[in-house]
Protein backbone atom coordinates (compact mmCIF):
# COMPACT_ATOMS: atom_id res chain seq x y z
CA UNK A 1 0.00 0.00 0.00
CA UNK A 2 1.29 3.49 -0.72
CA UNK A 3 0.67 4.78 2.82
CA UNK A 4 -0.80 3.85 6.19
CA UNK A 5 -4.17 5.55 5.59
CA UNK A 6 -4.72 3.56 2.41
CA UNK A 7 -3.67 0.33 4.15
CA UNK A 8 -6.03 0.88 7.09
CA UNK A 9 -8.90 1.72 4.75
CA UNK A 10 -8.21 -1.49 2.80
CA UNK A 11 -8.37 -3.50 6.02
CA UNK A 12 -11.79 -2.03 6.83
CA UNK A 13 -13.28 -1.99 3.33
CA UNK A 14 -11.78 -5.11 1.75
CA UNK A 15 -10.27 -7.57 4.25
CA UNK A 16 -12.86 -7.22 7.02
CA UNK A 17 -15.91 -7.95 4.84
CA UNK A 18 -14.23 -11.08 3.48
CA UNK A 19 -13.19 -12.29 6.94
CA UNK A 20 -16.60 -11.39 8.38
CA UNK A 21 -18.37 -13.52 5.78
CA UNK A 22 -15.99 -16.42 6.49
CA UNK A 23 -16.39 -16.13 10.27
CA UNK A 24 -20.18 -16.00 10.03
CA UNK A 25 -20.21 -19.14 7.87
CA UNK A 26 -17.71 -21.10 9.98
CA UNK A 27 -18.46 -19.85 13.51
CA UNK A 28 -21.88 -18.26 13.20
CA UNK A 29 -20.64 -14.94 14.57
CA UNK A 30 -19.21 -11.78 13.03
CA UNK A 31 -15.58 -10.74 12.83
CA UNK A 32 -14.02 -7.42 13.78
CA UNK A 33 -10.72 -5.59 13.53
CA UNK A 34 -9.54 -5.78 17.13
CA UNK A 35 -5.76 -5.59 16.86
CA UNK A 36 -3.44 -4.19 14.22
CA UNK A 37 0.32 -4.40 14.05
CA UNK A 38 2.12 -1.58 12.23
CA UNK A 39 5.81 -2.03 11.44
CA UNK A 40 7.31 1.41 10.90
CA UNK A 41 10.86 0.36 10.10
CA UNK A 42 13.13 -2.62 10.22
CA UNK A 43 16.72 -3.65 9.62
CA UNK A 44 15.83 -4.97 6.14
CA UNK A 45 13.20 -2.89 4.31
CA UNK A 46 10.36 -4.98 2.93
CA UNK A 47 10.82 -7.77 5.47
CA UNK A 48 9.52 -8.28 8.98
CA UNK A 49 9.16 -11.02 11.55
CA UNK A 50 6.14 -11.43 13.79
CA UNK A 51 6.04 -13.95 16.65
CA UNK A 52 2.60 -15.02 17.91
CA UNK A 53 2.86 -16.50 21.40
CA UNK A 54 0.18 -18.39 23.30
CA UNK A 55 1.39 -17.18 26.69
CA UNK A 56 2.32 -13.89 28.34
CA UNK A 57 5.98 -12.95 28.15
CA UNK A 58 7.58 -10.34 30.40
CA UNK A 59 5.54 -8.00 32.57
Could you list some keywords that capture this structure?
mainly alpha, 1 helix, flat, 59 residues, single chain
Describe what you observe in this structure.
The chain is an all-alpha fold. The chain has one helix spanning 4-27. The mean pLDDT is 89.
Estimated share of beta-strand residues: under 5%
Biggest beta sheet summary: none
Could you spell the SSE succession in H and E letters?
H
Low-confidence stretches: none
Q: Name the average pLDDT.
A: 89
Distance between the termini: 34 Å
Shape: flat
Give me the secondary-structure category.
Answer: mainly alpha
The number of helical runs is: 1
Task: Summarize the topology.
Layout: H1 4-27
Structure at a glance:
The chain is mainly α.
